[in-house]
Amino acid sequence: MRGAVIHAPGDIRYETVDDARIQQPTDAVIRTAVTCVCGSDLWPYRGAEPTEHSHPMGHEYVGFVEEVGSEVTGLRPGQFVVGSFATSDNTCANCRNGFQSSCLNREFMSTCQAEYVRIPHAQGTLVATDGVPDERFWPGLLAVSDVLGTGWWAADAAEVTPGSTAVVVGDGAVGLCAVIAAKERGAERVIAMSRHESRQQLALEFGATDIVAERGEEGVARIKELTGGIGADSVLECVGTAQAMRQALHSARPGGSVGFVGMPHGVAVDGQELFFSHVGLRGGPAPVRRYLPDLIDRVLTGSIDPGKVFDLTLPLDQVAEGYRAMDERRAIKTLLAP
Amino acid sequence: MRGAVIHAPGDIRYETVDDARIQQPTDAVIRTAVTCVCGSDLWPYRGAEPTEHSHPMGHEYVGFVEEVGSEVTGLRPGQFVVGSFATSDNTCANCRNGFQSSCLNREFMSTCQAEYVRIPHAQGTLVATDGVPDERFWPGLLAVSDVLGTGWWAADAAEVTPGSTAVVVGDGAVGLCAVIAAKERGAERVIAMSRHESRQQLALEFGATDIVAERGEEGVARIKELTGGIGADSVLECVGTAQAMRQALHSARPGGSVGFVGMPHGVAVDGQELFFSHVGLRGGPAPVRRYLPDLIDRVLTGSIDPGKVFDLTLPLDQVAEGYRAMDERRAIKTLLAP
């Protein structure tokens, strides 16, 4: 079979790779319906994370069950399934607590920009839809598997409540999905921080009530102006840099919360500053599995359309161009169809 | 009047100081009923915080209203009052959000180890009891004004819920009060980390179900053993050192929460480690004012007795010995009576 492989920063190739096959009795193999390129794939692509040897790429997927291992029940070939970038047995203590992305048997998916994908712990990881959904829903369901699930978790971790004010730091696909999440969770005011016209438009379409184009301390000052001088109830940090974290922490009011879902790079939080801020902080890889049934339902009933974050669709064999377009910010997010 | 003054590390003197008097129309002056020495007073006493010039000490108090400013309503001379170490107008946005210790007009009390005390923003800061309580309740009410309020906040920030497992890091007066708080908030299991026999006994009396004497990573390993391998739902960090914070973060389960109330000294939290831990973190100076009516009620009805943290009572003029006894860990907490 064929799939995307990174050889070095900037060097993504679509080439022959090992066939996806059942290795454990708890595995399934799926035929990819659609997959995509994630903002976090750009860390190694840009050399911000090292690539010591060539390896496959991709952790987002929806597809058709092709084959299941002998211990998998409740899934059968032909079903359309949505999963998470983190596998989970969905039975361990952490899974039962709703933190499936800290499953004691967690594996991070890493071979999904390919024609077929092996899914470990398939029974606990995958959720099958009721019949095969119309193709127009595939992008939305693909978004559920990572960027919407992550934006949802940002709103959850930032404790967005009905009537509250939420700020979203970051206008990538996760940030834009975080706007959807904040709105769906009842925030009365959703302030999107974005300097890019096309992303601002999508944020407004997704439910943002205000746009702040300033960044850093200037951006914080604008947030304070918009929130009676004290800051926002909830801030959804969807970038992962030290600057974004600082901006998020300073934008929250005393007693407010920051949910941080951008994988931190070079972020350190000063204990005394956090102490006197009274701001709560929680983050991590999104427990997407917890949200899957609800989010799949919201997409299939048309109440949300997170698939709009895909503004470039390419055949899977043009995956390299998909990376380039995102790296150069020509695309928010690239959808890949085998 | 007379009060305690620090001149240098280790040098506390009881001497003549400026009289407490009304300076603003929102002030009150109280006559001290009892006051005490706080664990945080030991930071400057031990030289861990600089003492650049001599200044009064003390931020815990209960007393009798002596005089009120012209804008204070609802308080009158003779009333017995309980306050907080942080003043609050109790009307600003942060106060209305329940974070009175981030009041926009906050002042930290700092002259309370004295015969009389000026209380800024008296109307928003003080709560009068219904009549003058029996003297046996004074230590408990004094504890409410800081150490119990702070332990309560630790349990609140660590999101202790009924049936949960809570760990308390630190066996000072705040840590011991945090045991009370965790139990009162319904924790089924309260694990106190303490190496000191007398403090272990008080922790058990306050409701601890388990004692862990090990510290650092050994202590964390014991906590994991006691919690099915994953860690505790809630950890109450009542020390403020880097080691205590590390111990707290490592003792919480994925999805669990750390409430940190020991003023951080040299604490920095690594963003990526916090991310992958899935642990929530919230701390700060306790919003004692929010809890005052409830906690006063619990003390006066005898449902809790936090006054037991005072294991040494001295006349106020022996305040220097009160510091020494705590510094040498001969006393958990010293009560001072004018």
Automatic annotation (TrEMBL), chains A, B:
Cofactor: Zn(2+)
Classification via InterPro entries: ADH-like_C (IPR013149), ADH-like_N (IPR013154), ADH_Zn_CS (IPR002328), ER (IPR020843), GroES-like_sf (IPR011032), NAD(P)-bd_dom_sf (IPR036291)
Any one Pfam family match given in the protein's UniProt record, by short name: ADH_N
Nucleotide-binding in keyword set: no
Protein's UniProt keywords contain Metal-binding: yes
Protein family per UniProt: Belongs to the zinc-containing alcohol dehydrogenase family.
Boundaries of every Enoyl reductase (ER) domain copy: 7-336
Keywords: Metal-binding, Oxidoreductase, Zinc
Superkingdom of source: Bacteria
Name listed for the protein in its UniProt record: Zinc-dependent alcohol dehydrogenase family protein
Signal peptide, first to last residue: none
